[in-house]
Amino acid sequence: MDIIVKAEKKPIQRVIPIESPSFISEEKLQQAGNPALLFAEPRPLAMEIGCGTGDFIIQMARQRPDLNFLAIDIYNKGCLKTCRKIDEHRLANVRVLRMEARYLLTRFLEPETLQALYINCPDPWPKKRHQQRRLVNRDFLDLVGHFLAPQGEFVFCTDFADYARQVAELFPLPGFDNCLGEASASHLEGYPFSKYMRKFRESGLPLHFIHHRKSTHFHGNRIAGSAYPMNVDLRTTGHGGAP
Ligand SMILES: C[S@@+](CC[C@H](N)C(=O)[O-])C[C@H]1O[C@@H](n2cnc3c(N)ncnc32)[C@H](O)[C@@H]1O
Question: Which of 29, 54, 86, 139 could staple 22 via S-S, CB 3.0–4.6 A?
Fold first, then answer.
């Protein structure tokens, strides 16, 4: 049965229920208590924020069967399409959650548990007055440092030069080592393409990769679950909170 919800601007949006075994509702996550326990095989954990339609995570999960992956997005249809691909490929090492990134991190994840955190083509919020809505900023990097395991990697890829510059300028940051010889690069060897990355590449537009590793000397702020401003308003994120 379709559930109808009211969203901002668009009057009626359909949220299609996701029946896939790869999909984890918030209720299921709460029951598990810890995202690491959502997998039959215990393996180190990695996460993609804003998985869209799942093209990247499918390839990454096949490349790295030694890791378990959380693919998260606030976009219902994206989660649905990602689940379909996971089920088609019979991947046991990916779970999909329809959840806001900072909410999931601060409410459910143990510190220093992520071997990798990937963000591909995040919403660029190109208008100057909207730029404070961009996901990756200094506060967000505190979260990244807090939840990455020692030596865990952070990969950020955008087609938007201004966003790349803004993120690159947040580094050097104590506790993070740059994996590139420069602030950003146009290519990352072996890194799978997401749908948007492929689309931009095919249109001849450059991509900008930022790649850091958490150093063993990280002494970032300890972030208690409730300390991070968690009243995240989904209207200020990518899809206006829409399904
Ligand atoms: C431009 S799309 C890119 C999708 C995919 N990464 C790709 O490259 O094809 C950005 C995605 O990030 C999701 N998103 C935006 N803000 C988010 C947040 N705070 N938490 C989780 N997902 C978010 C959006 O719903 C959208 O699906």
Answer: 86
Atom of ligand 1 nearest to the CA of 232: 19
Count other C-beta atoms under 10 Å from residue 28's C-beta: 12
Answer whether residue 51 shows pLDDT above 60. yes
Atom of ligand 1 nearest to the CA of 78: 27
70 lines ligand 1 (CB under 6 A): no
- The whole domain housing 213 covers 3-236
243 falls within a domain: no
Three-class DSSP category at 173:
coil
* pLDDT confidence band for 181 (50 / 70 / 90): very high
Q: Look up the pTM and report it.
A: 0.90
Distance from residue 237's CA to the centre of ligand 1 (Å)? 9
pLDDT tens, residue by residue, 119-170: 999 999 999 999 999 999 999 999 999 999 999 999 999 999 999 999 999 9
CA 25/CA 18 separation, integer angstroms = 9
- Residue 37 is part of a domain; what is its CATH number? 3.40.50.150
Which of the following is catalytic: 87, 123, 162, 177? 123
pLDDT for residue 222 is more than 80: no
Q: Check if 123 is active-site.
A: yes
DSSP string, 215-242: -TT--PPP--TTTS-----GGGSTTTT-
Q: Is the CB of 157 inside a 6 Å radius of any atom of ligand 1?
A: no
194 lines ligand 1 (CB under 6 A): yes
Total of domains in the chain: 1
% of the chain surpassing 70 pLDDT: 85
Report residue 213 CA to chain centroid gap: 16
